[in-house]
Amino acid sequence: MDQEILVNLGRVVYVNYGPEVGKLGVIVDIVNGKKVVISGEGLAKQMISNKRITLTKFRLPEVSVGISQRALLEKIAAFKLQERFSSCGLGKRIQKQTVRAGLNDFQRFKVQVLKKKLGKALRTSINKNRQAILAKAK
Question: What CATH number has the domain spanning 1-102?
Answer without folding.
Answer: 2.30.30.30
